[in-house]
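Reading a protein record of the kind used here takes only a little practice. To see the layout at work, look at the sequence and tokens printed below.
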Amino acid sequence: MSKYTLHAEELAEEILKTLEGSGLLKAGSDKDGAVVNTLSRLMVSAGFPEKDVLTKNITILLSDIRGFSQIAEAHTARDVVALLNRYFDCMGNIITQYGGTIDKLMGDSILVVFGIPNAKADDI
């Protein structure tokens, strides 16, 4: 559950009503929409959620091959690609076995997330 009870736009509308109610802004101005949009954009850029946000504990794993640069320099491209394919295949099997989701493959690195979209009882 989000720690915020309102979305950015809803909060911007509440701020506008408060400013109008206190007399700082003229109520019913034709610029109300622009004020709400500007406040909403400012809050989102400051990290306030644009929409409901689900807060969960997840685990992120970033794995790569130790010494990969030296390995790549010492072997042909065909051998390096074969090594990466074996590595990604083995790691992919292990990751999915334990309920992980592969987010990205970056060079010799794998970015993995555990706990989303589905959490398991043994997630940390």
